[in-house]
Amino acid sequence: SRWTFYFSKVFNLILQSAKESIVNNIKNRSLQGKMKVMTKSNNDFEDIARWRMDFCREFGVTINDEEYFIDKVQTYGYREIIYQYLDHFIEGNSEKVRPNTTFEEIYAFYQLDQRLKNEALIDLQLFEQTFKAALIDVIELYVAQLKAKKFNFYQESRLKLEDLLKEKYVMQTGRVIRRGELRSRIRRIKENYLEPFDGYNYLYSNEITTWVLIKEMSFGVACNFFFLLHHKQQAIILKRVFKNDLSLADFEKVIESMRYFRNRAAHNYSLLIIKNSDDEFLYNTVYKSLLRLKNQEPARRMKSNFKDIINKYLEEYPKLILHIKFFYTYHNAIF
Question: What confidence score (pLDDT) does residue 162 get?
Fold first, then answer.
């Protein structure tokens, strides 16, 4: 069911964050007890940064350059760096990080995730372009075929959404995609879309074309449009985009993992430790999905650039490969 699917994700996150209660001892330690009345001056914010620095030191983190610490936590967020990445540097049931762990190492690990995340998003964008190109071509052909059947030369040949799409589609997770909800999205696009180039509206008599309509859709809305198409059109699109026959159920899994990844990335959550319901790191799930495409540019880019990014990181911090298990996984799956 839908709830089983989402609860499994939540439960997986809980398992992966088993050390959270230990980490939170230092993260949430009574900052308010130390805080004075704030006057909103820069010194007040610097004081907060220094108190946080003390908390990190109590937790065993070495901070060699205090100004560097203050700059990074004020620029990118203390919680973004410490809350999400500190537990990678804790071993076993210890309440402290590994000996000689520096803030610079933690921040570098945060940056590593940012670089991998940005690369994966580019590769997913390439997949989205391929998917939308196929979607546009199939819809345009389908519309032309429907018009030829439904109208003669003298009739107004404007189709309704009901002519193209099913009323609803129920996904494996239990989520229901409805034509009525998509209709309102399309209405908003028609009212607010960006003109792609000068003269386009004049050329098409101010009628939005399939290309502009799909181009303006988010990836999620375009996927919903796909799921509401009839089976014949869905099969044509899947055959054009993927190397081997892909069932609709398998495509759902591919899309759900990509949506989940993109949503986490958009809100800047950590992705290095995140696994899917099959206990596989999400970066690897994305890579395996890209390997199934006929267009191999996204997978080639991801493999090559991930290797460069990780190797560059390990040149500076070689000892961390002994402590962070995901490197072994990436080495076997992506390299």
Answer: 84
